[in-house]
Amino acid sequence: MNIAVAQSGGPTCAINASLVGVFKQGLLTEKIDAIFGSINGIEGMIYDKLLNLKSVIRTNEDMELLRQTPSTILGSCRYKLPDYEENPEIYEKILQTLQTHRIHIFIYIGGNDSMDTVVKLSGYLKAVGSDIKVIGVPKTIDNDLPVTDHTPGFGSAAKYVATTVQEIIRDSSVYSLPSVTIIEIMGRHSGWLTASTCMLRANGEEAPHLIYLPETDFSADRFMEDVRKEMAKHKAVVVAVSEGISLNAEDSGIAEFQSGAVDNFGHKYLSGVGKFLERLIADKIGCKVRSIELNVMQRCSSHICSKTDIDEAERIGRHALRTALDGETGKMMYFRRISSMPYAVTIEMTDASNVANLEKKFPKEWISPEKNQVTDAAIGYFLPLIQGEVDIYMKNGMPVHFHRPLQVR
Ligand code: F6P
Question: How far is CA 90 from its chain centroid?
Fold first, then answer.
C-alpha cells in the first residue's frame, strides 16, 4: 500500500519533524511502498499534486536536516473543505487522487482548522464505503488545541519568544531616559505564547512588567494606568501583548493599524496592536516608546528550537501512522501530561471532532486579578516544553536548511 502526508495551516519549527516521524515509520513498515507528500495541504489531494518523498528524503542526514528545518517542506494551505452537500466534486476529486495512487492512509498535520478536514474527509470516506484511513497530527505555535496538553511547535516558539524578549529587556534599559517597549506576540485568540514570557522569572528577570492576553477584556484606559504605575517603579518598562487582545469600542482606533484582511477560514489578520499601543503611549505620555512585532520569526526561528518539541513532534508523527495501521480513522493524536517534574507525556488519540474548529484558552486561574500578569503557577507548565537544544547543522556560520527539489511526483 501507499500512504500520503500533508501539512496545513501556519508553519512551525516542528512540523517537518512530524513529517519525518511519519516518513521514518513508513520506512519501517514493510507493507508500505510509496510515501507521498501532498503539496499545499489538502489542495495537493484535490489537484493531484503529490511528491514521492522517498525520492527527495534519501539519507539519514536528509532526515536530520529536515527535522531542524522550519516551515513546511510540502507547503501549506488555509483551505476550508466545504460540506459534502455544498461541493461533492471536491470529495470525489480527493477520492480519485487517493485511489489513483493506491493511498490507504492519509496523515494530516495541522491545527484546529485542519482537524475539520480530518473530520469531514474521514466521514466522507466511511460514508462511501472506503477503507482509507485519515489521522490528524496536531501542530500550532498558538497551543490552542483542546484535549492535548500542548501542541508540537509551541515549545520552540515559546523558547524563541522568551529568549528574544530577554534580549529586548537588555537592550531596552541602556539609556537614562524613561521608556516603554511593547512586544506583540502571535497566538490569535489565545494567550499561551504571550503568557509563556512569564518563564523569564525562572531566570530572575522582572520583565515583562505587564502581560496582556486575549482571555480577558482589555481597556486602553486601564492599560495607560498600568503603564504609568510601572513607569513609577522602573525606568524601562517592557510589555508583552497578544496580537488578539479583545479591544472594546472605546479602543476602535486599532483598525487604522490593521489590514482588515481575512483568510479562507474567516480569521482576521491580527497584527497591529503593538503599533496601536505605541501611538497611545506616544500621545498620552510622550516618553520614548517602541513597539516590536515578533511576527513570523516566532514560528520559524529554528536556530533556537526546543529539542523536547522537535523530538515529541517526530514521535507523534510516528504514532499517527501506527494508529492508522491499527485501523483507526477520524482521530487526532495528542499528548497527555503524566508529570511535569520529571516531565513525562504519553501519546493518545481522540476523535478529531473534539478538536476541530475549537480553541483552548489560556486558563483564567493563571491570570492575575488585575488582568495584566501571569501567575507563577504557569511557569511549571511551560518550562518542560522548552528544554534541550538541537545540535543545529551549520555551514559558513549559518544554519543549513533542507531544500525540497521542485519536481512534483
Ligand atoms: O495559527 C498560527 C498563526 O501563526 C497565528 O498565531 C497567526 O495569527 C496566524 O497564524 C497568521 O497567519 P498567516 O500565516 O496566514 O499570516
Answer: 27
Protein residue with least CA distance to atom 4, ligand 1:
10
Mutation probe of ligand 1 site: the residue of 259, 269, 295 with most atoms within 8 A of C-beta: 269
* 398 to 70, 132, 393, 395: CA distances (angstroms): 14, 42, 8, 5
Question: What's the Cα-to-Cα distance from 56 to each of 60, 116, 160, 248, 346, rounded to whole Å?
Answer: 12, 29, 29, 50, 31
- CB count in 10 Å sphere of residue 253: 12
Q: Ligand 1: which residue has its CA nearest to atom 1? A: 10
Q: Which atom of ligand 1 is least distant from the CA of 263?
A: 15
Tens-digit pLDDT profile for residues 174-196: 999 999 999 999 999 999 999 99
Atom 10 of ligand 1, nearest CA residue:
10
Residues in the chain with pLDDT values less than 50: none
pLDDT of residue 255: 74
Q: Whose CA is nearest to atom 9 of ligand 1?
A: 10
Angle (nearest 5°) at CA 129 between 126 and 135: 35
What is the reported pLDDT for 237?
Answer: 98
Catalytic residue list contains 311:
no
Residue 78 CA: nearest ligand 1 atom is 15
Q: Give the global pTM.
A: 0.96
Domains of the chain (ranges plus CATH)?
2-140+302-357+391-399 (3.40.50.450), 154-300 (3.40.50.460)
Preceding omega of 208 cis (within 30 degrees of 0): yes
Residue where the block lists cell 507493507: 31
The alpha carbon of 338 and the centre of ligand 1 are apart by a number of angstroms equal to 30
Model pLDDT, residue 263: 74
Closest by CA to 104, choosing from 384, 272, 375, 327, is 327
Rounded to whole angstroms, the Cα distance separating 70 from 350 reads 27
Distance in Å, CA 286 to ligand 1 centroid: 32
User: Rounded to the nearest whole angstrom, what is the distance from the C-alpha of residue 247 to the centroid of ligand 1?
Assistant: 19
What pLDDT, on the 0 to 100 scale, is given for residue 408?
59
